[in-house]
Specification:
By secondary structure, this protein is an alpha/beta fold. Helix content is about 35%, strand content about 20%. The strands form four sheets. Strands 1-16-15-14-2-5-6 form a seven-stranded parallel sheet. The protein has a five-stranded parallel sheet with strand order 8-7-9-10-13, sandwiched between helices.
Length: about 280
């Protein structure tokens, strides 16, 4: 059952809080109403919390510095980005020293290098890693990547596919959206499905709504009694549901969050509804 509450009740009900960044704390215009005071409140009461963001093109320190420049008192070690999970993924899948091509700006290449990947051109890659929709010539790069995947697949060789940010779209303004890394991975998967069907190579995903980022949030907060605060059903709320966590949806921030009380047919159901992060 979904109940409407005030955001300041969340740390009273749960040991820790996970927060989305874009659309909950900030947008392109700056800090959203109540966000700075809510972070100060969590800091003052020493509530374990983490910022879970699907952003994958900047380091934790760069993201932390950006948040603080906007007036959000968030330490670097409170930030978990989908990109920052890549080095662990590389180690867990024995990708050390594997030739890796990264689709994303140069700042995101560090995640592959930290995991032990060796950066190469698409034609030499054994690992394809997507971090962002920017930083490369779009169509030429995707053509090269698609052909490399097909080449290795038809030669019976493995190709490890990794997408840090599963988001398909993101809000550029209150009424406009842009494509993100997840859409690129989806395009490649759809093309591979067309050729190979069920045998097509698939991507591994690190960010919301997938498990790795929520496992990292649990580890950072040191608790299973957490609530995820988000503005999107498809990533924040569905991901929390899958991870067995409670969730709080901020209404009317982006398109699919504009739901009142009828959850019939909804992709996910939140535990709580919030109007904003303002005190009562």
């Amino acid at each position: 059952m979904t109940i409407a509450i005030n955001a300041y009740e969340l740390p009273e009900r749960h040991e820790g809080v996970l927060l989305d960044a874009f659309g909950v704390l900030v947008n392109r215009a700056g800090v959203l109403p109540g966000a700075a005071d809510f972070i100060r409140h969590l800091n003052a009461r020493d509530t374990p919390y983490a910022i879970l963001t699907n952003a994958a093109s900047r380091s934790k320190s760069a993201l932390g510095a950006h948040f603080r420049s906007l007036g959000l008192a968030i330490a670097d070690d409170r930030v978990i980005s989908s990109g920052s999970l890549a080095p662990t993924h590389f180690r867990e899948h024995d990708l050390d020293a594997r030739p890796t091509f990264v689709l994303g700006p140069p700042s995101s290449h560090a995640f592959a290098l930290e995991g032990g990947g060796r950066l190469v051109k698409p034609a030499e890659a054994e690992v394809i890693m997507i971090t962002d929709q920017s930083g490369f010539p779009f169509l030429d790069t995707l053509d090269a990547v698609l052909n490399r995947i097909i080449q290795r697949h038809e030669a019976g060789k493995t190709m490890h596919l990794l997408c840090c940010n599963p988001d398909l779209i993101y809000p550029t303004t209150d009424r406009e959206f842009g494509f993100t890394a997840g859409t690129i991975a989806g395009m490649l998967e759809r093309a591979l499905d067309e050729r190979y069907g069920e045998a097509a190579p698939r991507f591994h995903y690190l960010g919301k709504p997938y498990a790795p980022i929520f496992a990292a949030g649990r580890a950072l907060c040191g608790s299973d009694d957490l609530v995820m605060v988000g503005d999107q059903l498809s990533t924040d709320i569905r991901g929390a549901n899958r991870a067995g966590l409670d969730s709080a949806l901020i209404r009317d921030r982006v398109g699919d969050a504009k739901i009142a009380d009828d959850w019939t047919g909804a992709i996910a159901t939140p535990s709580y509804l919030l109007d904003d992060l303002l005190p009562a």
